[in-house]
Amino acid sequence: MRYHRFVEPRPPPRRKEFAARTWSKLVAFEKRHALLPSGGRVLAAVSGGPDSVCLAHWLSVQARRKGLTVRLLHVHHGLRGREADRDAAFVEKLGRKLGLPVSLVRADVKGLAKARGLGLEEAGRKERYRLLAARARRGRFSAVATGHQLDDQAETVLLHLLRGASLEGLGGMAPRRTLAPGVALIRPLLPLTRAEVRDYLEVHGLPSRRDRSNSDPRFTRNWVRLEVLPLLEERAPGVKERLAAVAEKVRAATGRT
């Protein structure tokens, strides 16, 4: 039996409120972790979903302000037929709108999963990071950016707890880590909740794509997102922020800040 939490519809954010709350979080987080040094070269992973669209727009603004070179990379997993083709076309259109070049790469995730004895979710994740690292090194990018946000961090910590992770695993995702020699993996959206990402898109009038596979609770992460976290949030409001805070403390204690 699935648990669904009723959420009151929220009024659209005002620009002043947005600037004071959401935009200032992004700016402060980027400065604190030195994620985007002036003149840097950044390859952004963009699926077309809300988080990655937010990331692409944020980077396009920072590119103008900091003299960054930014390119969007979309990985076509070959799993969802025409829907995946439409995702790729959407990202190419987004790149044109933001004035950013786009690269499209294809991956045979189903074949890789079968050959390596992995689930589709795990095979897709591993292949995405492999392709991102390879393209970053080939294009001489100093950083690869992903659109992980605070809700993703809370889900990651819970998943590690369920799987009996080590103390280091409970540190979740670091804002910055090494992806490959000379290439950092950065996560500029980690201070934002999923709701704040939606606010960002609404304020800037940005559409996004919806991956229906993200609503399938057969995937463990989806189950945590759709059923476990809403139940915990109902019983203990603010649990996502507290899980993310615990992860930050663990990273500090283990030297992974």
What attributes characterize this protein structure?
257 residues, alpha/beta, six-stranded mixed sheet, globular, disordered N terminus
Give a brief outline of the structure.
53% of the residues lie in helices and 12% in strands. It has helices at 15-33, 50-66, 81-98, 109-116, 120-138, 150-162, 194-204, 220-235, 239-253; strands at 41-45, 69-76, 102-106, 143-145, 176-180, 183-186.
Helix content: 40-55%
Name the quaternary structure.
Answer: single chain
Number of helices: 9
The termini sit apart by 39 Å
SS class: alpha/beta
Poorly predicted parts:
1-6
**What characteristic shape results from the CA principal axes?**
globular
Major beta sheet, strand line-up: 3-2-1-4-6-5
Largest sheet: 6 strands, mixed
DSSP, total strands:
6
In round numbers, the mean pLDDT is: 90
What share of residues are in beta strands?
A: 5-15%
**Whole-angstrom Rg:** 18 Å
Compressed to H and E, one letter per element, the order equals: HEHEHEHHEHEEHHH
Describe the overall structure.
This protein has 257 residues and is of the alpha/beta class. The protein contains 9 helices and 6 strands; from the N terminus they run αβαβαβααβαββααα. Helix 1 (15-33) crosses helix 7, helix 2 (50-66) packs parallel to helix 3 (81-98) and helix 4 crosses helix 5 (120-138).
